[in-house]
Automatic annotation (TrEMBL):
Keywords tagged on the record: Membrane, Transmembrane, Transmembrane helix
Keyword Methyltransferase: no
Protein name: Two-component system regulatory protein YycI
Organism this protein belongs to: Macrococcus psychrotolerans
Gene3D superfamilies: YycH protein, domain 3-like
Transmembrane region(s): 6-26
Amino acid sequence: MDWKHATSLFIFVFLIINITLGYIYYEKVQRANIVEDTSSEKLDFKKEGIKLTKLPSAENVKMNIVSGKSAGFTQSSSDLEKKSEELSTVTKVEIKPAIKLTAIQEDDIIKGIKNYLLTEIDKGKEYTLSGIDRANKKLYFDQMYGEYPILNNDKAQIKFSYNEKNEVTSFEQTYLKDIQEGLGKNNEKKKVIPAIEALEVLYYQTKLECGDEVMSVRLGYYSIVREVRGQVLKPTWQVAVRKVDSSIETYYVDAVNPEQPIL
């Protein structure tokens, strides 16, 4: 072996490795500086051409990861003999007589359905209006845990159907039961970041751009683990955005660990 050439080769490889490591370190420092700079500067959404809705307050709010299980529904006498895990997790009911709504608007929907929701639907008081789908004639109510909704979850909602006469004719219901907060030191309640900070996260990750309009911002729980019968949900800011092309995008920002990936 030519040790002179081998030594030169080892020195060359060593230099390349050091240069590479130096570059990686430089990039890491630069990214850290960018994060520090953006967090220290106050972002002016108006100057950026982004319209905002009124933002909800989360001052002094602390939340935790929670878990829950899908409830089973008995829909006939034969279901009484079944174990809970054998029951259907959704119940479908026709509304007779149909409920006439004066208009498909938030206040009119709540006024028209409230009594039926409280008196005719099991645990109906635990749901809140969350969405209107005019194209498919559906009204969505999210299940609540404490003061906050379980966001966009087909295992924790009531879906009403209405016809061309604005008559509510049926509903489907799902429900998460045995909801409990995480236990242990790593699952202590944490302070929720302000809504404006969630929007800044979206902006710096280019999810919010000039010409966009933030239509609604809600704090709640969003599913991160979804099994057949059980779920794990984390505190989350839900942000609905109308883009420049008029399409609607919904983003989910971790409300206690904003450095986590946007969903």
